[in-house]
Design the sequence.
């Protein structure tokens, strides 16, 4: 066989039958919106990684195009310089992944966020197909924990006939749930934020009676999961520490997602960060923790499968992707 085992073959699954890859991959059409995803045409959907006795699966739900005007805390010149250094296009939007995570432990299956569902049209909502490809029925999910309640993290909680996971309960920070379901706050929100409130309320109405909240501080949710407070992006934005034996890994939602910009310039944010100053302070605090302790991290929007390490570089940081684990 003369075929080279290239990264593209790995991505499209052409090599998986003959190699012992831990990667599960399935071809899928790229979302239709130009610029929203790389032009590879076919993308991986699933990536498994062990954390001690547990298995963490990153699921690619879609992609989101970050327009230059959505950035804060960085000048156009600084943006261009950082993107050029990362060999990324300067013109136009910067695409970022939308991922969800599945944690398998001896106690059950926990989803960490649920992707965009139908809220982002063809640019999201691959979670259901990815779970089916992995042989996981929606009824097998017994718990869902949310980093926060923006549309690209909760849309997948809705299915064609109501809730998408009929045997699951949803766990979210009490400040997050209170904020998005407060009619007064929703009515005073600027026009551009209205859809976010409407979507959050639609999802929570569907899940009524199946939602429980956790509070401030680090809360042990059981089953190897502990909350890591990361508020700033939203009032109850939360990360999760997965621990098993001597191993751990921290997942975050929107602490950062643009690898080329938000480590070398950690003050770079997005207009969706609701408390800008606090989100910068939180980003630096969590980066410091991850760098000092050498903890592997994973994130919704970092380049799929979004797993890696944070390293300190003077007053800034660097993102060091983890090599795929092939066995
Ligand atoms: Zn968000």
Sequence:
């Amino acid at each position: 066989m003369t075929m080279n085992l290239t990264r593209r073959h790995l991505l499209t699954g052409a090599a998986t039958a003959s190699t012992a890859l831990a990667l599960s991959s399935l071809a899928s059409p790229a979302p239709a919106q130009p610029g929203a995803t790389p032009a590879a045409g076919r993308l991986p959907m699933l990536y498994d990684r062990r954390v001690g006795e547990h298995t963490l699966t990153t699921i690619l739900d879609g992609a989101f195009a970050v327009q230059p005007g959505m950035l804060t805390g960085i000048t156009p010149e600084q943006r261009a310089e950082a993107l050029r250094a990362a060999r990324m296009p300067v013109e136009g939007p910067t695409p970022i992944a939308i991922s969800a995570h599945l944690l398998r432990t001896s106690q059950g299956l926990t989803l960490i966020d649920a992707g965009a569902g139908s809220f982002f049209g063809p640019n999201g909502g691959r979670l259901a197909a990815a779970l089916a490809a992995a042989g996981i029925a929606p009824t097998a999910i017994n718990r869902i924990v949310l980093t926060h309640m923006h549309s690209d993290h909760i849309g997948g909680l809705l299915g064609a006939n109501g809730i998408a996971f009929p045997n699951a309960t949803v766990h979210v920070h009490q400040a997050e749930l209170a904020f998005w379901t407060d009619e007064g706050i929703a009515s005073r929100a600027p026009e551009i934020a209205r859809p976010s409130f409407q979507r959050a309320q639609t999802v929570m109405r569907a899940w009524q009676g199946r939602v429980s909240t956790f509070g401030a501080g680090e809360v042990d949710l059981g089953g190897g999961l502990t909350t890591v407070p990361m508020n700033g992006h939203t009032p109850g934005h939360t990360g999760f520490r997965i621990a098993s034996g001597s191993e751990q890994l921290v997942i975050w939602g929107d602490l950062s997602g643009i690898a080329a910009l938000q480590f070398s310039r950690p003050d770079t944010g997005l207009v969706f960060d609701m408390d800008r100053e606090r989100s910068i302070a939180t980003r630096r605090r969590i980066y410091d923790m991850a760098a000092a302790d050498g903890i592997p991290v994973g994130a919704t929007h970092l380049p799929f499968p979004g797993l890696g390490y944070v390293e300190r570089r003077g007053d800034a940081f660097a993102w060091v992707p983890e090599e795929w684990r092939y066995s």
Summary: Confidence is low (pLDDT under 50) at residues 1-39.
